[in-house]
Write a structure and sequence with these properties.
Blueprint (H helix, E strand, L loop, with lengths): L1 H11 L1 E5 L14 E5 L8 H23 L4 H26 L8 H18 L7 E8 L6 E7 H5 L6 E2 L5 E3 L1 E9 L5 E8 L4 E5 L6
Parallel strand pairs: 3-9
Antiparallel strand pairs: 1-2, 3-6, 4-5, 4-7, 7-8
């Protein structure tokens, strides 16, 4: 009995967060569970805990919206995909934190997760059926001698060689995309993920890239 009480106490020090949600908004049984400490300590700082709780809140909002029929199938799929990418970036940041002396969640991963969560909340407030949205994705650098290309996050994960040309102002189906800035003279490239979930989606990308 004493062992069971100790195990219960240990479990209560964490809250579970699914690494991957399925299209039915259930934790993917083949994916890991992120056990997040409830209080800052050696395994997590306040930033990681706060971001994990925000993803938990997004999960609740997705389930409410889905059950009320307030989202189209395309919108729900795009929002779940973006949520899963946010959780993946959270895990990346957690791994860096765990392997870094001083144990701080990396600022770059925090910005990425914050951006995903912000865009998800905008997508949750979009009118039902807004499956194609206007976008304005631009290179944040100074030169104009670049081409903008894009492909879906899923295709990029499978290393697809197929890219579409992007022109600022294009309308795109909701989803998460990888945008590529390619220098025409040097052929150097920069890639950045962009959740496209609400209208208008505006983003300046690859600001540190030097063609």
């Amino acid at each position: 009995m004493a062992c069971s009480i100790l195990q219960l106490g240990a479990a209560e020090d964490y809250f579970p967060l699914a690494a991957v949600l399925t299209p039915r908004l259930q934790p993917d049984p083949s994916g890991p569970t992120i056990n997040v400490p409830r209080k800052p300590g050696p395994e997590a700082d306040a930033t990681l805990i706060a971001l994990a709780r925000q993803i938990n809140t997004v999960d609740d909002s997705l389930r409410r919206k889905a059950s009320s029929g307030a989202l189209s199938e395309a919108q729900l799929g795009a929002l779940i995909e973006a949520r899963n990418v946010a959780a993946a970036r959270l895990m990346q940041g957690r791994d860096v934190l765990a392997g870094t002396s001083g144990g701080e969640f990396p600022a770059g991963e925090k910005r990425a997760v914050d951006n995903y969560l912000s865009q998800i909340m905008k997508g949750l407030d979009s009118p039902k059926g807004r499956d194609v949205v206007k976008t304005n994705i631009v290179f944040a650098g100074l030169t104009a001698d670049v081409a903008l290309l894009y492909q879906s996050y899923a295709n990029h994960s499978f290393k697809s060689p197929d890219w579409s040309t992007y022109t600022p102002g294009d309308s795109i189906k909701v989803g998460t995309y990888i945008f590529k800035v390619k220098a025409l003279m040097t052929q150097r490239e920069c890639e950045e993920s962009v959740p496209v979930l609400a209208e208008p989606t505006e983003r300046r990308i690859c600001g540190a890239f030097r063609p």
